[in-house]
């Protein structure tokens, strides 16, 4: 009796899976970690979404970079699999800062439909597909529109966060302004910002108040030299109570070399950069080296790479900072991040950072009180800092996942 029941359940599951799956539809593997995947699955018809790229007819691989107007440049590769292995296409399109989230996801959806037409035709399911082309008449022949802003994009923002209870309350607010101009030959960016964090604790009718604030102005300008070389200048000024700097400024010219051409940067980069310049610090409290204010010469060397491919993505970087006034004052930092699909249904994720710090010249002299330690009112001396995140995911079962059911948000 038990064996018969098990057999009947298995047959019911198989029948259900078969009834919900249309084997005639084009099978897609959607590889995008920044898209509204639910919206795409709900609105892209005549397709079946699968969990494993090996079962797909088309692998949709997305890559994205920030563009000059503050939006994003999207590159979508249509990678044919199995019976479609000889077919491949690529579509590029851009968004801008005026577009809402709904505008963006609709644009992505329309571009996907356009890119899939060839594959629907080869699959033999083009009967339900129609393509509309707008007619062009003489009145449509207009002169190219001139950009009155000449590529400049400005942004103004502010936000605040407040919470508390009877014995404690916290507040945080930020304000920022930016101006940005990006062309193929030049990239200029100006940022101005202010932030303040305030914590208040009530104990035995006394209030313990901790306040940290910072102000900054940064100006960066980068010039393209060749497909591999760039030069730039980087300036910054401001103040920070946390880092014991009543006023500071820095200026560092730099040079960068990309071992790949910059036009491939959405998929792969390997970049070497070098910066050198001067820093001025005016301290709130006298530093551990007995300085109230000082000029420092510093240089920075970094080598980092990023790969974004259909098997996953990988990022790694090593960076070395050193004061030239005293070369024993330096720091060395390693960063690593990866998300890799190792085999069917199994992905491995790792993120980490480790830094050896021997260059904390801004620390105030004297001992740190318990109150300052617990409330994190100032930067503390440390020979190193790190963080590590490891994880994996494994899924199995039906390869089809086109059905979207948002009830109860799970």
Entry keywords:
Immunoglobulin-like, 2 domains, 12-stranded antiparallel sheet, mainly beta, globular, about 400 residues, Porin, 5-stranded mixed sheet
Task: Describe what this molecule looks like in 3D.
The structure is a single chain. The chain has helices at residues 2-20, 37-43, 101-123, 370-375; strands at 26-31, 47-49, 58-66, 72-80, 88-94, 152-165, 168-182, 186-203, 206-224, 229-240, 245-258, 268-283, 293-309, 312-323, 330-343, 346-357, 384-394. Helices cover 13% and strands 51% of the residues. A hairpin with a 7-residue loop joins β4 and β5 (88-94). The strands form two sheets. It has a twelve-stranded antiparallel β-sheet with strand order 6-7-8-9-10-11-12-13-14-15-16-17, with no helix packed on it. The protein has a five-stranded mixed β-sheet with strand order 2-1-3-4-5, with helices on one face. It has 410 residues and is mainly beta. The longest helix has 23 residues, at 101-123. The protein has two domains: 2-127, Immunoglobulin-like, CATH 2.60.40; 225-394, Porin (Beta Barrel). The two termini are 36 Å apart.
Secondary structure layout:
Elements: H1 2-20, E1 26-31, H2 37-43, E2 47-49, E3 58-66, E4 72-80, E5 88-94, H3 101-123, E6 152-165, E7 168-182, E8 186-203, E9 206-224, E10 229-240, E11 245-258, E12 268-283, E13 293-309, E14 312-323, E15 330-343, E16 346-357, H4 370-375, E17 384-394
Parallel strand pairs: 1-2, 1-3
Antiparallel strand pairs: 3-4, 4-5, 6-7, 7-8, 8-9, 9-10, 10-11, 11-12, 12-13, 13-14, 14-15, 15-16, 16-17
């Amino acid at each position: 009796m038990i064996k018969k029941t098990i057999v009947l359940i298995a047959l019911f599951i198989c029948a259900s899976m078969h009834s919900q799956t249309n084997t005639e539809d084009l099978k897609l593997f959607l590889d995008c970690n920044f898209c509204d995947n639910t919206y795409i699955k709900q609105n892209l018809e005549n397709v079946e979404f699968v969990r494993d790229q090996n079962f797909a007819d088309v692998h949709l691989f997305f890559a994205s970079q920030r563009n000059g107007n503050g939006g994003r440049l999207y590159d979508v590769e249509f990678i044919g699999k199995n019976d479609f292995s000889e077919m491949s296409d690529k579509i590029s399109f851009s968004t801008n800062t005026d577009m809402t989230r709904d505008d963006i996801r609709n644009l992505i959806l329309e571009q996907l439909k356009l890119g899939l037409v060839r594959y629907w035709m080869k699959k033999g399911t083009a009967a339900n597909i129609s393509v509309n082309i707008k007619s062009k008449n003489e009145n449509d022949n207009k002169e190219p529109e001139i950009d009155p802003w000449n590529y400049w994009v400005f942004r103004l923002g502010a936000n605040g966060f407040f919470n508390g209870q009877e014995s404690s309350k916290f507040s945080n607010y930020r304000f920022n302004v930016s101006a940005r101009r990006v062309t193929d030959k030049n990239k200029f960016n100006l940022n101005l910002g202010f932030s303040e964090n305030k914590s208040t604790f009530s104990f035995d009718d006394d209030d313990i108040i901790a306040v940290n604030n910072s102000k900054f102005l940064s100006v960066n300008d980068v010039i393209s030299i060749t497909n591999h070389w760039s030069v730039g200048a980087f300036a910054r000024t401001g103040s920070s109570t946390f880092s014991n700097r009543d006023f500071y400024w820095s200026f560092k010219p730099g040079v960068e070399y990309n071992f790949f051409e910059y036009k491939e940067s959405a998929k792969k980069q390997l970049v070497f950069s070098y910066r050198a310049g001067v820093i001025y610090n005016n301290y709130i409290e006298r530093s551990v080296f007995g300085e109230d204010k000082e000029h420092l010469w510093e240089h920075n060397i970094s080598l980092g790479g990023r790969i974004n491919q259909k098997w996953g993505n990988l990022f790694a970087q090593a960076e070395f900072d050193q004061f030239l006034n005293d070369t024993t004052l330096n720091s060395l930092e390693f960063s690593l991040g990866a998300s890799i699909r190792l085999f069917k249904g199994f992905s491995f994720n790792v993120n980490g950072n480790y830094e050896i710090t021997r260059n904390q010249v801004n620390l105030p002299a004297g001992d740190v009180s318990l109150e300052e330690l617990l409330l994190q009112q100032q930067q503390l001396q440390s020979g190193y800092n790190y963080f590590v995140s490891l994880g994996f995911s494994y899924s199995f079962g039906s390869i089809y996942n086109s059905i979207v059911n948002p009830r109860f948000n799970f």
